[in-house]
Write a structure and sequence with these properties.
Blueprint: H1 14-34, E1 46-51, H2 59-74, H3 78-85, H4 89-105, E2 110-114, H5 124-144, E3 150-154, H6 163-180, E4 192-195, H7 201-218, E5 227-231, H8 234-237, H9 245-252, E6 257-262, H10 264-270, H11 283-296, E7 302-304, H12 316-335, E8 341-343, H13 349-376, H14 386-402, H15 407-414, H16 418-422
Parallel strand pairs: 1-2, 1-8, 2-3, 3-4, 4-5, 5-6, 6-7
Helix pairs in contact: 2-4, 3-4, 4-13, 5-6, 7-9, 12-13, 13-14
Length: 431
C-alpha cells in the first residue's frame, strides 16, 4: 500500500487521451478559427461621422480648434468640470490638461466620410462628384500626414433600392483615393468601409464578394479591405428563425469584419420607440448592444455604441446641458464595456475625451494596485482569477492608448511597463 500523499499513477491510458485529442481536433480548429481572441492594438474611443459633401482639407484641424474654443468658453474651471464628471478637483485638473492637449494634437481618432443618412440622396452626378472629391481629399491628408489614425467611409446599404448607388460610390472613391494617396500604400492603414442597415447574412456575403472584387481590380493584397457591420434593424439582432443574426453575420465575413456599430435611432424607431424616448440608454438599445457584445466576444470584432443627437450648441445653458448628457452617456457606455461611440459635432469632442479620461484616471490607482497585488501574490487573501487580471491589464492598456494616463504613471502605480501588462492578456488561439 502506498504512503498517504504518494504520487498516484492514474488509470486513464495514453490511448484514451490520444483518442480524445483526435476526436476533438476538428472542434479545437473550429474554435481557434471562430474565436481567436481579442484583437491587439489600439481601439479608437470614437468614430466621427462627417457628411461627404462637407469633408474638406483641414477639417480635422477645424474641428479641434472649434472644440478648444468651446471648451475654454463654457468650461472655465476645474470645479465645473469636476461636477459634470463626478470627480474630485485633482482628477478634474488632470483631465482638463489632457483634454486640451488631445484636442490640439489629435482631435479626431477615427473619421468616417458619410454617404448614407448624414449625406442623403443626391443626383447621380452630384454623388459621383462628391465621391471623387472626398477620395482626393483623403488622399492628400494621408500624403501630408494630416489624416486621423483611423479613417473610412460609410456607403449606402445592400438593400435593393440603394445597392448599386452605394457600390458605385465606393468604386469611384477608391479610384480617386488611389490617385491622391501614397503610391506604395494608397489604402490608408486602419481604413474601413461601414456597411449600414444590414438585415440578413446574405448582405454580408455580398460585401465579402465586393471586397474581393475591389482588391483584384485595384491591386490590393488579398484580405486587406475590411468592413464594419452597422446594426440598425431588429432583424440583425434576432432573425426569423429566432437566432442572433449578428453572430452569423460576423462569422460569415471571412475575417473581414472589424467592428459592429450600433445605430441608435434607426434601431429604436424600427422597434416602435417614440422619438422623444429614442436614446443610447433605452432598454431596446441595451438589449441590442448586449446581443452584439456576446456575439463578438472572443472573435476579435469590436463593438461600438451609437450616438446622441442632442448637440451641445446654442447658449451657455444649452451647451452645459448637452455636455452633461454626453458625458454621462459616454461614462455609461464605458462602464458597460463599450469603449467606442459616435460623435457628430465638434462640440461633442471635449466631453468625449474628458469623460473617457475621467473614467480611467478615477480608477487608475485601484486597478493598478489590484493587478500589482495579483502579480506578487502566492496565495493568501488575493481571490482574483487570471481573467480578472487580464481585464485589469486591459483597462490600463486602454488608458495608455487613449491618452488618459502616461507610461510613467502606470509604472509608478502598477510597477509594470507596457510589455509587463501585455503578459497578463490571454494569448490568441493558434490556428
Amino acid at each position: 500500500m502506498k504512503e498517504p500523499g504518494a504520487h498516484q499513477q492514474g488509470r486513464l491510458g495514453s490511448d484514451v487521451l490520444a483518442a480524445l485529442d483526435t476526436a476533438l481536433a476538428p472542434v479545437d480548429a473550429d474554435l481557434a478559427r471562430r474565436y481567436p481572441g481579442d484583437r491587439s492594438g489600439r481601439q479608437p474611443v470614437h468614430t466621427v461621422y462627417v457628411p461627404a459633401d462637407r469633408y474638406h482639407d483641414g477639417l480635422v484641424e477645424e474641428w479641434g480648434a472649434a472644440a478648444l474654443q468651446l471648451f475654454a468658453e463654457h468650461c472655465p474651471d476645474d470645479v465645473v468640470l469636476g461636477d459634470w464628471l463626478g470627480v474630485d478637483s485633482d482628477v478634474a485638473a488632470a483631465v482638463r490638461r489632457r483634454t486640451v492637449a488631445k484636442l490640439d494634437r489629435e482631435p479626431i481618432e477615427d473619421l468616417r466620410i458619410d454617404f448614407e443618412d448624414g449625406y442623403g440622396h443626391r443626383s447621380e452626378d452630384a454623388e459621383d462628384a462628391d465621391a471623387l472629391a472626398a477620395g482626393r481629399c483623403l488622399g492628400r491628408a494621408v500624403t501630408s500626414g494630416a489624416a486621423p489614425p483611423y479613417t473610412g467611409m460609410r456607403i449606402k446599404g445592400m438593400e435593393a433600392a440603394t445597392r448599386r448607388r452605394g457600390l458605385r460610390t465606393l468604386d469611384v472613391f477608391f479610384d480617386s483615393l488611389r490617385s491622391g494617396a501614397l503610391p506604395s500604400g494608397w489604402l490608408p492603414d486602419g481604413f474601413v468601409v461601414t456597411l449600414p442597415k444590414v438585415s440578413v447574412v446574405e448582405q454580408v456575403d455580398a460585401m465579402v464578394s465586393v471586397c474581393e472584387a475591389l482588391e483584384a481590380a485595384y491591386g490590393l493584397p488579398e484580405g486587406s479591405l475590411r468592413f464594419e457591420i452597422q446594426v440598425e434593424t431588429p432583424q440583425a439582432v434576432v432573425g426569423a428563425d429566432g437566432t442572433a443574426t449578428v453572430a452569423r453575420m460576423l462569422h460569415r465575413a471571412r475575417g473581414r469584419c472589424g467592428g459592429l456599430h450600433y445605430g441608435t435611432y434607426d434601431y429604436s424607431a424600427a422597434c416602435g420607440v417614440a422619438a422623444a424616448y429614442q436614446s443610447m440608454e433605452h432598454p431596446v438599445a441595451d438589449h441590442a448592444k448586449a446581443v452584439l457584445q456576446v456575439a463578438a466576444a472572443g472573435t476579435g470584432v469590436r463593438v461600438s455604441d451609437g450616438s446622441t443627437n442632442v448637440l451641445p450648441v446654442g447658449d451657455a445653458d444649452a451647451v452645459h446641458a448637452g455636455w452633461q448628457l454626453h458625458a454621462r452617456l459616454v461614462r455609461r457606455s464605458l462602464e458597460r464595456g463599450f469603449y467606442q461611440g459616435w460623435d457628430l459635432h465638434p462640440a461633442q469632442l471635449p466631453t468625449r475625451y474628458a469623460a473617457t479620461y475621467a473614467f480611467y484616471r478615477q480608477h487608475l490607482a485601484a486597478a493598478a494596485a489590484r493587478l500589482r497585488a495579483y502579480a506578487a501574490a502566492t496565495g493568501g487573501g488575493v481571490l482574483d482569477e487570471p481573467a480578472t487580471a487580464a481585464a485589469l491589464a486591459g483597462f490600463l492598456l486602454r488608458a495608455l492608448d487613449c491618452g488618459a494616463v502616461d507610461t510613467a504613471e502606470v509604472e509608478r502605480y502598477a510597477d509594470l511597463d507596457r510589455a509587463g501588462l501585455e503578459t497578463f492578456l490571454p494569448q490568441r488561439r493558434a490556428l
